Amino acid sequence: MKNIRFATLGLTAILGASFLAACGSTATSSGSETASASSKAESTATEAVKSDSVITVSSDPSAIPEATGDDTTIVVGASPNPHAEILEQIKDVLADKGWTLKVQEYSDYIQPNAALSSGDLDANYFQHQPYLDEYNKENGTDLESAATIHYEPFGIFPGKTKALADLPDGAQVGVPNDTTNEARALLLLEAQGLIKLKENAGITATKNDIEENPKNLEIVEIEAAQLPRSIQDLDIAVINGNYAIEAGFTVLKDSLAVEDAESLGAKTYGNVIAVRKGEKETEKTRALVAALQTEAVRSFISDKYEGAVVPLI
């Protein structure tokens, strides 16, 4: 496995991706089991992801602070799906309080943090906490989470092979090539009984930690954003929820398997609003978070994505 080192803006960088590990029992992609997993995931993850490190704001839109002064534009960097789509839902409610929300879309996971660090953004919304922690560690930055909004289940999607039971010996399996998300993909493969990882490999697992591989699967590391485009050349691929959505896949219907509600992904790796250190309590941040933590946004996420994105608000 490649040991990805996050580069600063302007250097060649490998794309990141939006989640981490999946352990626990299998949840399949069809029928009542899928619906049950989606519902269970929502209730389990909501409690598990919240922590004292994020600000808690009332779901009442009246909690959104009124804009004051001359700087009333909130600039947020986001990946197109689902993050930018979710942000679009709060433009009007922010406008009612005197704020203008500008959403800057990014197709990779390096630039949003670099732009936030440099001051070009007020916040970003695309990543989970472990990814943010790793970025800070590798780049000497001190970005922090202001709130956790949702999580996106990982899925195993069919390429040349249409069922996990039909995987041939030596089948090619695409996984994200960044450290945090490759671990999550490998843990999902392990949950399906396709491989066995070394004991305690957990959320730091790489393909070098594969202890048993009865079908001699070839683990192919690919940039997370490229996995949907590469799937026709692979037998199967483990794809991040947001990239699956962007490619037109329905995670709970099109996947061969999806993360269980008890997985680390469901419990720990929700997508966060990130800001610069010391700016969690600014008027802009509080307005942004309060606008996102409303019942209207929760309902939009649940209705729009049908379990492919799970609200944590």
Automatic annotation (TrEMBL):
A GO CC annotation given for this chain: membrane
Entry superkingdom: Bacteria
Gene3D superfamilies, per database record: Periplasmic binding protein-like II
Family matches, as CDD domains: PBP2_lipoprotein_Tp32 (cd13597)
Keyword Ubl conjugation: no
Family matches, as InterPro entries: Lipoprotein_NlpA
A Pfam family it matches: Lipoprotein_9
Membrane topology: Lipid-anchor
Localization (cell): Membrane
Cleaved signal peptide residues: 1-22
Keywords: Lipoprotein, Membrane, Palmitate, Signal
Record-stated family: Belongs to the NlpA lipoprotein family.
Designated name of the protein: ABC-type metal ion transport system, periplasmic component/surface antigen
Organism: Eubacterium cellulosolvens (strain ATCC 43171 / JCM 9499 / 6)
Lineage of the species this protein comes from: Bacteria, Bacillati, Bacillota, Clostridia, Eubacteriales
